[in-house]
Design brief:
Layout: H1 2-37, H2 84-87, H3 107-117, H4 127-134, H5 155-171, H6 180-185, E1 188-194, E2 200-207, H7 212-225, H8 236-241, E3 243-247
Antiparallel strand pairs: 1-2, 1-3
Helix pairs in contact: 5-7
Length: 253
């Protein structure tokens, strides 16, 4: 019994020694760790890496020379607004240059130029020929007028003149007593006054053809053709005052 009690006492002492030693070692490790970490700065974060997205497209050939990078333009410098009062100056208007006027040709220059124009002709022109050409007038009218019209009128008048003339020409009864020569030569001018609704106000022959029978046939044709269609609204006052047209046995040329 005494031997068992002695071994149990030894085991207890051993366990106490081992526990004490283990506690001392743990305390030593903790002290060392705290001492080393005391005053030590935390590790700095890793630096940020700048990246750029690659453009979608065909890959550049590696054999080509590298591209020259373009530098970004410097930011615009802020300039102070100019002093308006200092820069303000009265500007005098620049005079306009008048175009150079061509010198007026002399009478001799005009005559010589006229002779050069007709140099190929057999008879050389004279001063009287030049005067005749300069004083020659052309028939006034309208580019879309009627060939048989006698009035200087616009497009509306020319169209209406053709309309009333065509109606009268279709109703014209040429007398059988006229000869072939008279059918080609005769021409009578008749003056008409037409109201706004197309009715005939009056008519008379202002230039006789030389054949009374044909002149009477012209007046009868005018009355037979009335009423006409209404004149254009803007031309009704004109036709109330009257208009002259030519009538021929066949056609006026």
């Amino acid at each position: 019994m005494s031997a068992l009690a002695s071994r149990a006492g030894q085991n207890r002492i051993l366990m106490i020694f081992i526990g004490t030693s283990l506690a001392l070692h743990v305390a030593f490790v903790v002290v060392v760790a705290v001492t080393l970490s005391w005053g030590k700065k935390p590790p700095a974060p890793p630096p940020a890496i700048k990246t750029r997205l690659v453009k979608l497209g065909k890959q550049r050939d590696e054999k080509l020379l590298p591209r020259i990078e373009k530098k970004a333009p410097p930011p615009p410098s802020k300039k102070s607004p100019p002093d308006v009062q200092k820069d303000k100056k009265t500007k005098e208007p620049t005079p306009k240059k008048e175009p150079d006027k061509e010198p007026t040709p002399s009478a001799m220059d005009v005559l010589n130029k006229f002779k050069e124009k007709h140099a190929d002709e057999q008879d050389q022109p004279s001063l009287s020929d030049l005067i005749a050409e300069r004083t020659k007038t052309t028939d006034e009218g309208h580019e879309q007028g009627s060939k048989i019209g006698t009035e200087v009128s616009g497009r509306l008048r020319a169209t209406y003149n053709d309309e009333i003339l065509a109606k009268m020409q279709s109703n014209l009864e040429v007398p059988n007593t006229l000869s072939d020569e008279e059918r080609v030569r005769l021409k009578a001018r008749v003056f008409l006054r037409i109201d706004g609704d197309g009715s005939l106000l009056s008519s008379k022959v202002t230039r006789k053809s030389g054949n009374p029978t044909f002149d009477n046939a012209v007046l009868a044709t005018v009355k037979k053709s009335a009423p006409f269609s209404a004149p254009p609204l803007t031309e009704r006052d004109f036709y109330r005052n009257g208009v002259s047209v030519n009538l021929c046995p066949s056609s006026c040329r």
